[in-house]
Amino acid sequence: MNEPTKPSHWRGVVTVLAIGAFLTFTNPFGATSTLPLWGAFSYWTGLVAVGWYGGSLISDGLRLVAPKLNTLVHHVLATVLVSFLVAAAILIVQRAIGQVVPLSYWPRLYVLVLGISAGVATVSWLVERAFGGPAGVVTHALPEARVRFLDRLPPKLRGAVIYAVSSEDHYLRLHTSKGADLILMRLSDAVVELEGLEGAQTHRSWWVARDAVEGSRRDGDKVFLKLKGGIEAPVSRPNVRPLREAGWF
Hints:
Elements: H1 5-26, H2 37-65, H3 71-96, H4 106-132, E1 138-139, E2 162-168, E3 171-176, E4 179-184, H5 187-193, E5 199-203, E6 206-209, E7 213-219, E8 222-227, E9 231-235, H6 237-245
Antiparallel strand pairs: 1-5, 2-3, 2-6, 3-4, 5-6, 7-8, 8-9
Helix pairs in contact: 1-2, 2-3, 3-4
């Protein structure tokens, strides 16, 4: 059930390589002036990777320690902490190549790293904003409400409990207590007709019934809801905080 993580994973790799290439050619502070092109690219890309993936781990740790931390404060604190990690990596690399950084230069080094880390964090936020989409629509349980979407269930699924609805090209896959099937429909239209059932659009391609949620798991900086029937539904970044605060996980 790890397929949903692949696009995000490759976006991260591509972003790290792109930032590494940019820093290679701009060469901030002349740090790699004496290195060949391949060496400079390896140097900068390696440091960006340490910051990018180390930042993800630090961010996860902050969510565990302080789950209700303000989003802006969370990002600022994560950037401050990851800068220590990247600065430490620079000190280790410089020592390994025989160019020990004097102790008196360490504070300035940290400030320089903090500036670059803030830039990388901004790029990360923009990437997630571009691909994450807006927060999903929430549907509500209404007493004795007629749920129009139930009329669209194929004959073999009639009377089933809906766990989730996911988008596949022009079709929707219905995940239910009686199995799964496809119908031709747009997810945006389906969410309108699902009003009357308590649930939420957790991702631009998924709607999930709240009663179907049995747990959650993290994969890096991504969150997945574990549903009845062995299904896992991704939660896009803008939806993580609202769903957590609503008690979904």
